[in-house]
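Note to self: the last two entries modelled the partners one at a time, which told us nothing about the interface. This time every component goes in together.
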Amino acid sequence: MNTATVSEDETHQEHSDHGLSDVGYIKVALILAILTGVEVATYFVDFGVVEIPSLLILMVVKFQIVVSYFMHLKFDSKVFSYLFVTGLILAVVVFAAMGTSLAFWQDPAGCDASAFC
Amino acid sequence: MAMTEESPEILELESGEIAPTTGVFARPTHASGWRAWFFTVDHKKIGIMYGVVAMFWFFWGGIEALLIRLQLFTPDGSVLTADQYNQIFTMHGTTMVFLVIMPLAAAFANYMVPLQIGARDVAFPRMNALGLWLFIFGGIFLNLSWFLGGGPDGGWFAYAPNTGMTYSPGNGMDFYALGLQIVGIASLVGSINLIVTIVNMRAPGMTMLRMPVFTWMILVVQFLLLFALPVITVALVLLSFDRTFDANFFNVAMGADPLLWQHLFWIFGHPEVYILILPSFGIVSETLPVFSRKPLFGYSVIVISGAAIGFMGWGVWAHHMFVSGLGPVGVAAFSATTMFIAVPTGVKILNWIATMWGGNIKFTVPMMFSVSLVSMFTIGGLSGVMHAVAPADTQQTDTYFIVAHFHYVLFGGALMGLFAGMYYWWPKAFGYKLNEALGKWHFWLVLIGFNMTFGPMHILGLQGMARRHSNYGPEDGFDFWNAVVSIGAFVILMGMIIFAINIVRTWLGYKAGTVPQEGADPWDGRTLEWAIPSPAPEHNFDYVPVVTDLDDFWHKKYQTDETGKLRKVADGNDIAQKGDQHPHLPSASYWPIVLAAGLPLIALGLIYNLWLSGIGLLLMLGSMYGWSLEPATDPDAGHDGHGEHQDPDTTEPDGSDNDTAEEAPVG
Amino acid sequence: MADTAETQTSELAYGRTDWDDHHHLPTNTGLTNEKVTMWAFLGSDCLLFGALISTYLLCRNRVGPATKGPTAADLFDIPFTSVSSFVLLMSSLTMVLAVTSIQRAEMERCKLWLLTTAALGSIFIAGQVYEFTGFYREGLGFTTNISSSAFFTLTGFHGVHVSLGIVMLVTMWVLVTRGNLGPERAETIEIIGLYWHFVDIVWIVIFAVVYLIP
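The predicted structure of the combined assembly is written out below.
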């Protein structure tokens, strides 16, 4: 949240680099298209145990690419990154904690002799 | 519309060039009367309106509290039926949290933050007005339930499925869910606005670590609001869908998990606790140094611990759910995090004590309220740490011990701090001080009444008296302390009546000339708001101050001489700005209030008839167009784009590039 | 800043300086208020969709004594949804091209890309409507069971976000066409683009987590 330190450094870089050229963006979109193709392929081909991890990794990579290049976050001021990433990390951590606590932690099997179940 | 720092000559030049308005609608120009308030975009008027409306709801929520205490005065009370009692305690909690403490903090934030950072207004003045009107209409909507079939009756945290159609068949919970939705949007709008203001519009030289602590705490609170409100939005949407459209989120017969609501509510609800208390922490961090005549002890530690509380506040929500069947892992984890969060809070308390230690303390009314915050909040904080111990909490959950705890932190903490702020900043907002003698009566009655009311609740709770029960029997042995509690509540009422008398009397006295007009700097203050006349002129600053120090204004008044001794070199009232410039200000607007009126219509339609929602939606869409087609009175500022004026490369390399945002005020 | 002696003796009020304020100054961060606002809003929206997605994940397989009907996941048509996901993904590319073209002051191209983006978004929404009606015909309404309530709420919220984006894109197209929005306000398009890409990344998550992961 502290923008004091970034404000000085960032203003100079800002606008100096507008990101990619049009061709560059089309290349990025091609990569995204290929990744989506791989994702969809998991539906037709059985990948076994690696299916869920690979889908999650592909999702994160696609997310990262869109945010960094299409949304310019890689080239833009750090202030934007802080605002967005704070929300993103909070969302992931908080809801992961909530989800696991609802899905696993309540399991009575893991709850021997405790006063709180 | 630009927040120009331009000198008057420049302004004339520009105004000569004003092109004919290109917008479709005119902008209101009333300088006085009700229209000057209803259509204003001035952050100071908006702040005062937040305060007035919040005090009205404080009165209303206080009456609800007194009804509760009348009912529990004696065993087998018969003032209220059980159903009425459910509605009254639900609305007491909801009102005090969402319609009193949050908007009172918003009042101070709106009024003081731009003054403390040396800005002419907030970043988006029209959005600021929109937030105010959404809050006002949301509060009215919530309380309409009293006249339309009874208030909500599920407690302020509205545990589903208890609040579903099966157990709460009236419309009360619909008003609750939709009303809080409207108030939540108001807070979200306000929070983004204040974040942008603080991040972008500080006076030159005011780095983040030269900001007053109050502004810092408000910034932390706005981030908490920004990230917490979407969560309750989702929770309330799920509840509304269940109630209105027969969805199954909390339908246990379909396999729903009732803990889903509890998790979502408290993921919002625990940051909410810090949303309520941190503004008051900020206020006393301003008043204690001023009235101890010492700098704040450990400024950066206070700021960092405030931010740390904000972050850690996200990791403790499930301590509200220790008896809900969370499982041992969850209970242990949230116990530990809850104990840890006491650390930054304790650090703050120590810092305030060290600030007062050895100071030349002046016991004015704001100082007395501030000291009572430090002491009363400490009591509430200690009982809070007790709840972190899960086995003890299992005993205390849903007893009056919990009620005692959160009233010590919210009344003894948040509200005491807000009263300190009122007495402290009254001269800045209105030009005169409140009466000190009456203020001291107010303070002592409230302090004594408060401890009479909530102190014995600890005992009642440990004796096993459950909260939210409309009755207790004569054989329970609760009657003595309940009588004391109820008498204490009426002592608080007397204190509040004296506060009201104080306001009216000083106001009449000021008009009659018997209460003196205060200068710019009545308390020998430290921060920028005291560098402008009282009451603050419409344009705030004649000249934007250039800040070189923390507590910059104070350093202009006191400096060390050759021998290293601190000497007063100037009087605040003399060196303050005169308020005699007339820079260009953002114009008033009709649209915030019209746009805000659409939402309660939509909400009413969801309860009664969807056609009404359609009308509300059309009203909102129409006023959005009105909003964007409204003429900017400054030809220089497009209605939503002014990035084009800004050339970051002009930023000066010597580190003094923390300039103000000039042209921000577009809604 | 005036020094002490001056402050005491001169007429100068506190804060009066030689500060050159005759021209517009940048904000503290050098960033416009509007863009900071959009990013703050997107950070906030992360929590909104975080709550909705985790609600769906918790609800999708829950059964109780009264549970009836299929779950949403039983009816997914992955090839169909893959196509509409791909359409939305490509609309992000056209959105970027709209932004770069207005930054180069190529207004005709900008108009074309804005309209293409809005059209691709509309195709996505049409696909969603088709999917919803298909579900309804197969006996999965909003109130059928807990997984259907959660599914329709999550995808419905996303659909509303996309629809709002389409309205904004069309409004921008009108403004550019009428000459009310020129290259000097390219940032307005950029900010709407940020919103559009955000809606796209939310769908990237939904597509993987809700549709593809079994």
